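Loading example: each entry is read as two labelled lines plus one structure line.
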Amino acid sequence: MKIEVLQEKLSKSLNISSRFVANRAQLPILNNVMLDGNKTKLSIYATNLEMSAVISIGSKVTTSGKITVPSRILTDIITNLSPGNVSLEAEKEQLKISAGSFNCNLMGINASDFPNVPSVLSKASFKLPYDLLLKALLKTLFCVSNDEARPILTGVLFVFGSSGLTLVATDGFRLSLKKIPFKTDIKDQRVVIPKNILLEISKLLKSDSLNVEFNEDSNQALFQFEDIVLSSRIIDGEFPDFEKIIPKSFEVTVNLGKEGFAQAVKLSSVFARESSNVIKLTIKKDGLTVSSESEKAGTQTSHLDAKVEGLTNDLVVAYNFRFIEEFLNVIEGEDVGIELTDSTSPGVFKDPKDPNFLHLIMPVKIQG
Amino acid sequence: MRLTKLSTMENISNDQIWKEVLDSIQVSVSPAIYNTWFTKTQLVSLETSNKDRVKALVGCSTAYVKDFIETRYFGILQDSIKKATDLNCDLMFTVRQIENQETAKANSDTSPLFETKAKSEETNTLLARAKIRTGFTFENFAVSGSNQMAYAAAEAVSQNPGQSYNPLFIWGGVGVGKTHLMAAVGHKIILNSNLSRILFCTSEEFTNDIVQGIRNKTTQNVREKYRKLNCLLVDDIQFIAGKDTAQEEFFHTFNTVTTAGGQIILTSDRPPSEISKLEERLKSRFEAGLIVDISNPDFELRCAITQIKANEMGINLESNEVQLIAGNVESARKIQGFLTKLVSASKLKNLSPRIDLIKEVLGKGSKDNGEIKARTSPEEVIETAIKYFSIGKRAIMGATRARSIARPRQILMYLLRTELGIPLQEVGRLIGGRDHTTVMHAVDKITTLASNSVKVQEDIMGIKNKLWG
């Protein structure tokens, strides 16, 4: 392999691919990226056996060929070079890098040991509206569980139906659901995509059309945009029946300003941190009181004006303030809508500006 | 049940084979390769296609692993499986995530959001604190004519504790479901309102608490415990009769709780008016609420109870089997006992609880309460039966095979066998020197008849009532 590429492009691509390389893998080749010079392109392959990335950049290929080299070393070298042409030349298991006055011989491993990583999408792929998907990911990803003991909750559920795509994420304490209305031919398909690949997509996807393919045989999801092809495993298993737990009816609705609510929650969190993050919302006819207490520090309350409907008796509900905070971070409008039945059933949080978004938070149980 | 057992057994052997295969591969590849690729595999299935060939389906955690093993290690895998099974092997690969026990357990645990209200831990702790048995709910309480009234009253109380009927006094014989009904009310109240100040106790516990209080000079604590309750459920209140201090204390507790709007439910084996040595003021207070009685379950109700209990124990019974049991066993507790016996018998003999086994277990009679009935001699039973049917002793002992004589004779043999537990041969000897096979046939016949003939049921109950009230 002998090629010439621009440092700017190569450096950018290696930054991306390095996130797909395994950290401290036992098998040395998994710490490497594979460079493949072919025709007019240099393709950079990286995988950690959970997900993979193939990034192609235009280059001048003199002789085609492949080699794998340690990702970290290569990235560190390339980012520190000055912009301009970089020449890469593979000879046996060594990569010769030269740029201006810089010369380097980097030890690599034969590319034939590198795992097979998908680099093209098949005809079964379809387009997703990237802007809507990005918004939906923003509103769901924060709910994904980190608990590896329940793998099914470590991903986002994609439900395709006649009305479009619905994204659902939950960690067992709260749940986010966002609908993306668009026309699709896929009917009734459900896949759970791991959080990590979605995080990468939300970072990398800027403005381009997004192609997606779900391959059930190999249990893989493939994403393609710009010159990047990403793949990931699909999580096996039965996603909990989320439709069942979304309350069908409610008794009390509360509408209030987001900013004031966010401030009150932030304030109450100061004391709540010492009492396992619990803050109390007391709903009265004329508004909402946010209060928290700490055995050491004391107590505090802040009253907020709110439009309350359907209330018969004052209602006290306790929540983990982090959950409310994170919800408030992702809503677009100026107002927040809350629908409640009692102090033990999940509360429905809504963004009046976005009817396709729904958030559930399980209250913390209070004694007495 | 048998099916799942088979498949788990297969899994074990598959796992073992796979372990052997992996062990031999571990020797021939480097540790890094082994840990990276092979630890992420499992043997999904192993089928023998021909005499000397097996088909192995290897599951890999991701497509990357599958591709790599399929292209690189096909040969070595095939060889190792061949060695482990002594059969030639066709290999297939698939993507399958490995579910270990830990994740399986975590998956079965539900997180708070997905918990149903009934299962929530808090309810269980509340139930435990109130000392209410979790199994007693309205859902598994069968209702029929004999307990409909009590059920309706209990349901009403559970909806509006302290308002509908206060106190609710449930009385009835042994094992008719008084305690179940009362506990169900408690359960429902906890479910509806998460009420924490609710307590289920027997009148004996109440008395003991008072005695303890007097002895340790902590009567005040005892009062606190009972008088602050929102709902007090007292089982077998008749035992409080004759205990003066306990009655006085209960009187005050009763007043405090009811005036504060709390609910009181009592059970007893007889109505308040018939409890002797019960203080007048207590009697009148008990009578102020609603008094409902539950009589012995009728045949249909026993069928329903049998079905419910069988479901709880995980046995599947056909309707004729249910009727057979309900026709021969007269109270809810005995049904429970019978089913337990049936399960253990079916385990012991490795038979499914089918009609033959049920008959066999029924035919053995109830030995557990033989103590009381042993006092009844076989002669008494024979005398009573003869009187009941108004047939001459000579006729019943004789050889007549007319149905009007033979049926009573069979019922008599059935009673001797099942109620007194007399051996078959001995029963034969008592009834005019008959063969033990004749007795066996009679017991079998009546067992079946008891499930579908009302006449026979009535006869059996009638004789039993004459004998043991």
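Chain A has three domains: 2-113, 126-242, 246-361.
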